Structure formats: structure tokens, C-alpha cells
User: What shape does this take?
Amino acid sequence: MVPVNNPLSDAISIIRKDWKLLAGLNALYFCILVIGAALALISPGLHMSMIQFIGAETIGGQLNPPHAGIVESLETAGGYMVSSFGLNTLGMITIPSIILPLWAPVIGSARFFIWGVTYVSPLEGVLTMQNLLPQYVAMLIEGEAYIIAIFACIRQLITAIDNMGAGMKWMLREYAYAVLENLKLIIVVFILLAIASLYQAFVIPALAGLF
Assistant: This one.
């Protein structure tokens, strides 16, 4: 029998192989998040303007009421998933970065900076620490998903750079192989975003109802 590769196992192997790159990206985007939060503390006006511009209570969108039914919460989770995976990951990171690999780290920096300004620091009369604490868990899970998607795109860029001297045909061949290999990482991204969507649809509203 021909052994069947497990895409999820392959994705985990990729992460283990290049864990230093992934760790570096985590450190980089954490720093960007902290810079955004520091600016929000220094300038409450900027913080308020960003909250009004985003127009959402959470990184995923508006909250369900605390006593929403299971069906309504599942529909909300599905909406979060479409937004976070379909639009924010595939539409804004993965697909554009196949053509322009540098796009991924740039759009990632913008997203984490906006999160830092908007959803990290409390703002009197608007965002309390009680509101924000559940958000930190959502940012941790969803943020890691985006970082892994960016990690895949940067691996593609490294492949292109490493093969530039071998001729255009060979470089494109190796780049195409890298794209197909890195698409396996999307499985990990999907799982993390599914967890984040369920957390935001079920857990955060339940916690909000306790306060």
C-alpha cells in the first residue's frame, strides 16, 4: 500500500522544522500589539477614534446577547468564521501573498497595530478591564492563526529568494511547490479560527452576562 500523507501532520512538521521563524513572528507581532496599546494609553482621543472607526465590541464583531440561544450563537460563530477565515485569512493574507509575498507581513502588522490601539487598553466609560480580559484570549487564539498564515507566506518568500540564482523556470517551480506545501498550514489556521469563533460566540457573551 502507498502511504497516505496526513496534511495536518505535515503542517505540524513544517511548524516544528521552522519553529524559530514562527517564534520570531510571534515576538514581532506581540511588540506591534504593545506599541498600539501604548499609543492608546498616551492618546485616549486616538483610542476613542479607533473604537468609533472599527464600530465593533470585539475583534470578531458585535456580541450576542448573554442569553442567546444555541442556534443563534452557532449562526454568529459561522459569521465570525466566514469573516476571519474567508475574508481576513484567505482574502487578505493567503491569496494576495501568492502573487506578492511581502503583502502578508505588512497587512499583519496593520491588523495587530489596530488591535493594540483598540482592544488592549481600557478606556474610561467605554471599555473596562472586565470587558477586555475575555478579548485577550480571543486575540491569542485568532492572532496565532493569522501569524501562522503569515508564516506560510514568508516561507514562500524565502523559497523564492533562495532560488533566484537558479533561473526563472526553476524558481517558479520551487515557489509553486512551496505554495502547495504551505497550504497545509491553512488546516491549522482553520482549526484555530474555528475555536476562536466558537469562543467569541458562546463564551464571551456568557462572561459578559456575569458582570
The helical segments are 7-17, 19-42, 44-54, 70-99, 103-119, 129-162, 168-182, 185-208. The chain has a mean pLDDT of 87.
